[in-house]
Amino acid sequence: MKRYTLEEANQLLPVIVKELDSLHNLQREFDLWHQSFQQVESELNPQEKMEWEKRIQYLELEAELFIANILSHGVWFEDPYSSTLHIPAILNGENGVFKWHPEEPLITIYESNEKALNPLNLVN
Questions:
Q1: pLDDT in the model for residue 29
Q2: Residue 26 contacts residue 66 (beta carbons within 8 Å)
Q3: For the CA atoms of the chain, what is the radius of gyration?
Q4: Quick one: pLDDT at residue 32?
Q5: CA–CA distance from 38 to each of 44, 48, 53 (Å)?
Q6: SS3 track for the chain
Q7: pLDDT digits over 2-34, tens only?
Q8: How far is it, in rounded angstroms, from Cα 32 to Cα 107?
């Protein structure tokens, strides 16, 4: 598994931000599409309904691609409901994890895997 230095991880952020922005835009499009579908679903014939469902499935596949692109860097989401990412890290020779949330311009939290320490704030 790749472990990032703080500099490397911060350089990775613009790539991840681009994918997250695309994912959020897609989520808005999906929500609008799904709301529209629910409003007209009862009026659609089977062929039309199938076309709408195909579009929704396509949007879901596209979302999976954006998520896969993010995860391909070896990072992972803190939990299914959070945008906070964990980035495998090495800091001062210790393995750990950088934590980053899209609202932050840079990584500010490091947690060591090797010591039972509280998270280290990288900036004051």
A1: 93
A2: yes
A3: 19
A4: 92
A5: 10, 13, 11
A6: CCCECHHHHHHHHHHHHHHHHHHHHHHHHHHHHHHHHHHHHHHCCHHHHHHHHHHHHHHHHHHHHHHHHHHCCCCEECCCCCCCEEEEEEECCEEEEEEECCCCCCCCEEEECCCCCCCEECCC
A7: 999 999 999 999 999 999 999 999 999 999 988
A8: 33
Q: Lowest-confidence range among 24-33, 81-90, 115-124? A: 115-124
Buried b (16+ CB within 10 A) or exposed e, 79-109: eeeeeebbbbbbbeeeebbbbbeeeeeebbb
Torsion of CA 101, 70, 62, 103, to 10 degrees: 10
Neighbours of 72 (CB within 10 A): 9
Amino acid 112 reads S
Backbone φ, ψ for residue 64 (5° rounding): -60, -35
- Does the model's pTM come out above 0.85? no
In whole angstroms, what is the distance from residue 124 CA to residue 122 CA? 7
Report whether 13 contacts 98 (CB < 8 A).
Answer: no
